[in-house]
Structure formats: C-alpha cells, structure tokens
Amino acid sequence: MNLEWYSAGETHRGKLRRCNEDALLQRPEAGLWAVADGMGGHEAGEVASQAITSELQDLELTGPLSLCVDTVEDRLVEVNDRLRMHARTQFKGGTVGSTVVAMISRGRTGVALWAGDSRLYRLREGRLEQITRDHNPVSDLLDVGAVSEAEAMSADTNIITRAVGGQPELYLDLAVFEVLPRDTYLLCSDGLYREVTFEALSGELSRDSVDDSVDALLAQCLAGPARDNITLIVARAKAS
Do 48 and 164 meet the contact criterion of CB atoms below 8 Å apart? Predict the structure, then answer.
C-alpha cells in the first residue's frame, strides 16, 4: 500500500524572545521533515538552525530508506563541523548550536533522527506517543536506571546534552517505526510542548485538517505565556 503525505507547519518567535532562533523544513514529496531549535543568542542560534534546514532542503534523497538515513546523518555531521568552526572564528569559541529532530519516511517505515530536546510524537487511533527521548541530564539518568520513569516525567530542565554544533563529535539517536494510514506525526520545539498539555496536543492533532491542527496548537500556545520560540510541523499519512 502506497502512502501519500500531507503536512503543515508554522514557526513563531513567541511573546518574550526578541528573535526567532527556530527553523523548520517540510519536504513531503521526499518524505522528509525537520525542526531545529537554535541556541547561543546574538543571532548564533538562528545561524545554526537555518544551517540545518538549508542543508537538508537541498539534499538529494534517492534509493532505499537506509541510504536516505545515512545521507541525512552525514549532512548533519558536516553541519556540526562547520558550526564548530564558525563558533571559533566568529563567536570567540562561544556556542553556535541547535537541536534537531528529523523524520524520514519510505513506504510503511519511518525513521526519526534527533539531537537535543525537540520532539517527535505520533497519534494513532486516538493514542498519542512520544517517539523521541530528550537528550538532557534527567533522561540520561533514566537511561542508566538512576531515576524512575515517573521522576523523569515530572522533571523540567532546559539543559540539553546533545546538539548540532554543541560537541566535537555529533551523536544522533535513531528510532525506526511502522507507519500506518491515518497516522499523524508532530515534530516540535520545546517552545510548544512546554506550554501545551499532553492532552491538548492529542486533542488538536485529532482534527481533520493538518492545517487546522497547526493553527489550533499555535493559538493555544500564544494564549499562554509563550516564553520561547514556537515551531511545529503536523504530518499525516493517507493511503493513496
């Protein structure tokens, strides 16, 4: 069964930040989506997030899914190296980095690649599931059994332990999952999920139109404090 993708996305600086250091990429015809949340301040974060989405925009994705994943991963490693060099020469060694979450789909299989705390969720038959796991100190402790799942879920931290441009070597996590017709996927920066409840995410993603879901989630976020930049993509698979 072939699948056809529909997606919509939006990015907003929020209410408190002076500029928007987030960026997004939608290439439904290529089965590729990405959200990047820049960090570093003084336009450094914007440089980093835009570098990621610009490089993925021009990427040629042909062949089997495994090759496409390798291609995306290799390009992000190249961006990591360039951002490290840019930080040394233009920002006196300061941080020029960005989180990234990317989704690649071929047929009935999807792959998530990520570094940092931008997330990928899947809504299937009314059940919302987080596919990615944040790279932060609490999640790292959870991985080694030092804290419980409940303790990790209740913790709230803006510290991340991985980012493109953040370390000399970029380590991306990867998750492989089945894609079914009517699955709805949400890629987003922490500016969304820290402001909107899990229940609200699930409810708004259930709307008939991906455009309506994006509009409703952004409106909910902006109705609150909206302390950070907000970026989201909603993508839905349909049988063609």
Answer: yes
